[in-house]
Each structure stands twice: as structure tokens, then as C-alpha cells.
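Worked example

This section walks through a single chain of length 609. The input is the sequence exactly as stored; nothing has been trimmed or padded.
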Amino acid sequence: MNFSTSTQYPASDPQTGEDVLSVWGGALAPAIEILRQMAGTTENEFLQIGSEVQDFYQRSSDITRMSNQLVGIVSGNSGQSLTGRLQQMMADMEAYLADARSRSSESCVTLERVQGLLEQLSEPLVGFQKLNKTLRMLSISTKIESARLGEMGIGFVNLAMDVEKLSHQVNDKSAAILGHRQLLITMITSNLAGVHSTEAAQDAKVASSLIKTAASLQELVAVNERCTQFGVTVSTISAEVTENISEVVTLLQMHDMTRQQVEHIVEALERLSGDLSNFAGATADKDRHLALIVESGDVCELQEAQLRFASAELYSAVCTIVDNLRDVARKQSLMADETMNVTGVADSSDSSFLDIMSQGMTDITAALNSCATADRDMSGTMKKVAHTVAEIASFVTDIEEIGSEIDLIALNAQIKAAHTGSEGAALGVLAEAIKRLSDEAVRLTDSVADTLKNITTATAHLFSGVENEEEQLGSRISFVQEELAEILRSLAAMNTELFATLSGVSGRVASLTGDVERATSRIDVHERTRGMSAGVLAGLEQIVAQARQIVPASSEFKQNLHHMEERYTMESERHIHEALARKRSGQSAVAVQADAADDSEFGDNIDLF
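Given that input, the structure is written out below as C-alpha cells.
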């Protein structure tokens, strides 16, 4: 007889039982050998599992630490400081851009007004051209009349030359004014066209950048809030992982409990086997024979219960170890995924909201540079307008002086005409005409002067504002750009650290998950020990069944097996023993599994590792 499920017991005499005792004794030897192998088969494998569990726990702790580090990158002091700086910077940029648009709008309005005022110069400039023609005609007429008078008109020749000279000066100065006017109109028209053509597109780009950056800033604030809450989640997961590992460590001690239980079973079966062997060589003693049958039934029934419980407990413990280890990997993987979501990162290869924010900051920096360039261009235009107006004003002053000279020539002509008497009457008429031209020149120069004064007032106001604010605005832009550059560097550093740490977390989680899966897939000690115990249990069940057929179970079970109780080191063994004893004494028996399940003691002789 052997202890495999396919082996059949040899025939035996149910009345005497002599052949059965011999068969039982022969069958217990291989059973004992199987149990010895079973006792030793768990230790090395459980030691290996314990070593891997220690490694898994350390790596799990590293993942938890790095997850906390990821949260700290975004929501730590540097992240909080960056959030505050960005909020202030956004407010400053919006204020600056609003001021820039206000200044640009004011400049455009002023330039458009200057355009209108320059159009008003058309009439007096046309008048200067007519004045020039009239002066030339009067010069020619004076020369003709002077030639008719002969010696009496010699003095008028000089006057005619002076008039002609003045006509040329009026023509030159008015042409200069006209040229500068056209230059101003072209400059202003071009500037306004440039501003109007780029302002809308620039405003749209700035508005888009500000909206994106504001959204990223809100995301950063939201991430800070989520990270604060996620810290609790990380702590909870970490505590759960620690609990998983602690349970695994506790369950790893099951191999020592199983070993002790199996060793006790082996001791009991060896003692029974010895008794059977001794009886086979002794003189037949019927009472002793029956006692051995009872003892064999009782011992095998008790050891069957002990072995069944030990095997089931070991199987359950190993299954729980596997489940706990896989649960550790699952929780760490879940925590890594949640960390990416919380920190605003889709995965270790995609961009984060920090990238979007950095791009928004870059776009806004470009917009600020564009605004600064526009400010400088507008300032340059105002300077050119002011400079050109100043040149026109100098020409007007020259024309005013020419008008004074014309007036003086007209006076001299009237005096000379009076000296010539009636023959100089024609010259007197010419002198009156020159006098009227003098008055017209004064009127025209006053008109131009008034227009230029209005232009000067408008541009001087704007120009003085530009001059006063240019240095301040330059400093302001420089500060904003420097602050933006520093923020961009901080964002880049944060992003680099974020993805480096995230890559480390992802790699460690993948490695841990893979190693846990490989380690757990190799664990089969519970299946092997269950298979080994199944054969032994089947053999013990048959011995018990045959023994009970020959001699019914005795109520003295507890007394007969009292010596075994003294060797027990675990409460579960005592519970099983007591349950069978109550059952044999006719008392209410408590389920063995229920009794043992409440036991939390591992005994005094447990190897911890």
C-alpha cells in the first residue's frame, strides 16, 4: 500500500484485522517520507520569497518617495513662488499692454489731427505761389516804367531787382514748406497704415497668448490644489502598501508553522508505525491487537485533521501572498498614473501644461518686444514730426522777414514815386500794389504760423509725454522681460525635473510590476504541497475507515492521545485536538476550521525572516 490516489489496499480479514495491521504499518513508512519532504520543501522557497518581498518593499518605497517628489516639484515652495510671480506678471503684462494700446491710440489720434492740420496749409501755400507770380509781374512792370522815365526812373530799377529777388525767396521758402508738408503727410500716412495693419493681428495674438497663459496659470493653481489633496492619497496608498507587505511578511512565517505541524504529524505516525511493527513481531494478544486498531484509527484521524488544516492554511497563505504582491504592484501603478494626472502630465513622453505655459510666456515676450518696437517707432515718428514742424516754422519766420522787406520796398517806391511828380504816377500805382502784396504776405504767413502752432501744440504735448515716459517705459519693459526670462528658466527647470522624475517613476513601476508578475508566477509551493498532502490524506482516510469498521471509535479518545497534547506548540493544533476529543466524547463539537481561524498565535518556535 502506498499513499497515491490510485493505490488500492490489499485484502484483509475484517474479523481479526491481523493482515490490516501489517498493511497499515507498511503504508505509513512512505507516508512519513512524503511528510518529511513536505516539511522541508517550503523553507528555501519561502526564504526566496522573503528576499524578493524585501526588495519589492524597498522599490515600492522609492516609488512612493518619487511620487511625493513629483507632487513637491509642482506644489512645493518653488511651485508656489512661481505661481505668485506668474499671477503678478500676468497683471503687470495686461496693465502694460493696455497702456501700450492707449498710448498707441492717442498717438494715432494725434497724427490724424496733424494730418488734418497739414491739409489746411494747402490754401496759404497756394497763396504764396500767387504772391510769387504777382511779385514777378510787379518787378517786370517796374522795370518797364523805370525805362520809360529814363534818368528819373533809375532808382526804380533797383527796386524792381529787389522785388524780383524777394519773389525768388518767397518761391524757395514756400516750396520748402510744401516739400516738408508732403514729407510729413507721407510719414504719418505710412505710420498710421502700419499701425492699423498690424495692431489688429497683434492684439489677437496677444489676447490669445494671454488667454492660454491665464488658462495654464489656472491649471497650475488647480494642480497645486490637487497636489495638496493628492498628498493624502499618496499617504493612504503608501499605508496600504505597507499593510500589504506586513501581511506578506506575517504570512511568510506560515512555512515554519506548517513545518512544525508536519513534524508533529510525522512524530505521531512514527510512534504508531513503531507500535505496529513491534506488535507484528510479538505473540498475538487480542486485547493489544484491538487497542492498536483503536489507536491507529484515533491517531490517523487526528493527524488527518491536523494535516488537512495545515495544508489548507499553507495554500491560503501563499495565495494571499501572491494576491498581496500583485496588489502592491497594482497600487503603485495606479499611484503613478494618478500622479501624472494630478501633475498635469499625460505620460512621460507628452508635454505638460508647463510646456504650454512656457510657450505662452514666449509669445507674450514677443508681443512685449513688438509693443516696445512700436513704442520706439511712434516715439521716432513724433520726434521727426516735431523736427520737421520746427524746420517749417523757421521757413515761416523767413517769409515773415520777406514780408517786412516787401513792406519796406513798397514804402520806398511810394516815396520815389512822390518825388517824380505826375510823371511817376504809374510808379505810385505799382508801389500801392507792392504794399498790398506785403499785407497779403503777412496774412498768409499768419495763417501758416497759426496752423504750425496748432501742430506744434499737439505734437509737443505728445512728444513731451513720450520723452518723459520713454525712459520709464524702457525700464519697465526691461524689468518685465527679465522677469519673464527668469520665469521661463524656472519653468524649463521645473519641467526638466518633472519629466526626469516622472520617467524614473514610470520605469520603476514598470520594472516592479514585471518583477512581481514573474516572481508570483513562479510561486507554486502551495500547489505542490497540496498535491503531496492529498495522497497522504487519502491513505490516512482509508486507515481510519478500515479501523472504524473493525472497532468503532472510542469515547476515550482524549485520554488515549493525551501524550500528544504536550508536544503541541501552536494553538491551532490544540483546537483541532480538542474538537475531535469533544466529538468522540459526545459533546457538541466546534468546527475545526472555525476554531483554528481565530488563532493568531504562531507559537514559541517560529523563525522570522
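What to look for: Confidence is low (pLDDT under 50) at residues 1-18, 589-609.
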